[in-house]
Specification:
By secondary structure, this protein is an all-alpha fold. The chain contains 19 helices and no strands. Helix 1 packs antiparallel against helix 8.
């Protein structure tokens, strides 16, 4: 009987995870959509590369700080209602982009709501995983979740350029709106109101906060230096898909490799495929051998070298695809950072622990996206429009040189990660 109950709980856990990770897939799809039609959007709104990059990155400016509240809300109120509300918020943002017309301000407002709701996606999946799955599987779940999210990015990069060619710019946002309603419906009918483990977590959380205030657990997480070190490492890794994959990759390859938007999207997708392949593998391996630092050191160093080769060497299209696949694979140990954050912070504040790290990750990516655009504008020879079409391959290579610099800084930061203290506190 006990074995049957455990098996039943295991099936339920995977079912709940699947519902939550479908929302993560959806928000990742929405995040990457502008990268799949960047030049079409630039022509539509008639703005510079830097200005459109800023409007698109509004997503990250709210995504990053909302992590503070997201983790606390999950710890306080659980997963179901928070995730459903978040999904509807992303949907509202897609509707805003759909109705923006030629107003870049309304598009930016739509990106604000997309980022606001998306800020609950990964944290929600990890929060539910910490309740429903045994501790020794969390790194694997983190890797698998990231892999599914990247499928959303691959889907967007593969099909959005085609959809733009077939049906135009705005119907793509209509599709995204419909997917959001579907995601919210799945969450509503799948995630239970509160499990026994979730109720126990609430009791521990409220007892710990009885003599303090709402943000006590959050402040404890933020006062931990290891949280910031781990977040900086994770952010350095994740700057690669955020800056290159989500926004600038298609435009870069169209100019440097002289390929179509469709071919560029398929090539950029190799970065996500590599990350997809490596995330569950490194998550599983780190759970099995209880080591993370060695993977973070090796991955960050390899990424910095491979990015330099990618940016500064003449490459064929096939070699470019192989390099992007390898960069994604070497960057995928980043998923172990979230487990490291859970291990270095109290269990009742697990939502806040993941949230703060995710906040740092998205702040780094959101800050770097427009920097690349501004560098392109500054280097462009066109003083009237500063249009991305007129930027040279040399300009783009210089602008994207921020990536190997950031990932090398992440390599240096990894030496300050205290893996022994994480193991002890867990």
């Amino acid at each position: 009987m006990e074995k049957t109950c455990k098996t039943s709980r295991c099936h339920t856990a995977w079912f709940i995870w699947l519902a939550a990770v479908m929302f993560y897939f959806y928000e990742f799809f929405v995040r990457v959509v502008p990268g799949g039609m960047f030049q079409d959007m630039q022509q539509h709104y008639a703005v510079t590369a830097g200005l459109l990059g800023f409007a698109s990155s509004v997503y990250y400016y709210i995504y990053s700080p909302i992590q503070i509240f997201a983790g606390t809300l999950f710890d306080r109120f659980g997963g179901r209602s928070v995730l459903i509300s978040a999904s509807l918020c992303v949907t509202l943002g897609c509707v805003g982009a759909l109705l923006s017309g030629h107003s870049l301000a309304i598009f930016a407002l739509g990106r604000f709501f997309m980022g606001l709701g998306s800020g609950f996606g990964f944290i929600g999946v990890m929060y539910l995983a910490a309740i429903w799955f045994p501790k020794e599987k969390i790194s694997f779940i983190s890797g698998l979740t990231t892999a599914i999210g990247f499928l959303g990015a691959i889907f967007a990069l593969e099909y959005i350029p085609q959809l733009v060619g077939w049906i135009g710019y705005f119907p793509c946002w209509l599709l995204a709106s419909i997917l959001g309603i579907l995601s919210a419906s799945i969450l509503y009918f799948t995630i239970p109101h509160a499990s026994l483990g979730e109720k126990e977590r609430w009791e521990v959380y409220r007892k710990a906060h009885a003599e303090h205030h709402f943000f006590t657990g959050l402040f404890q997480v933020m006062r931990n230096p290891q949280t910031w070190i781990i977040g900086s490492i994770a952010g350095a890794f994740y700057a690669i898909p955020t800056v290159f994959g989500d926004l600038w990759g298609n435009a870069y390859l169209e100019i440097v490799a002289d390929v179509s938007n469709k071919t560029a999207g398929q090539t950029v997708a190799m970065l996500y495929i590599g990350w997809l392949m490596g995330s569950p593998f490194f998550g599983w391996l780190s759970d099995r051998i209880q080591k993370k630092k060695i993977f973070l050191l090796g991955g960050s160093f390899a990424c910095s070298v491979l990015l330099c080769i990618f940016l500064y060497s003449p490459l064929s299209l096939n070699t470019t695809r192989i390099l992007l696949l390898l960069i994604g694979f070497c960057g995928s140990p980043q998923v172990t950072c979230f487990t490291a954050s859970l291990e270095t912070n109290p269990s009742y504040a697990s939502g806040s622990a993941v949230a703060v790290v995710n906040m740092i990750v998205m702040f780094i990516g959101g800050f770097t996206q427009p920097i690349v655009g501004w560098i392109i504008n500054g280097l462009s020879s066109n003083h009237i429009q500063d249009n991305l079409h007129m930027a040279s391959a040399h300009d783009l290579r210089i602008a994207l040189s921020v990536l190997p610099i950031i990932i090398f800084l992440g390599f240096v930061m990894t030496f300050f990660y205290d893996e022994k203290s994480a193991t002890t506190s867990s």
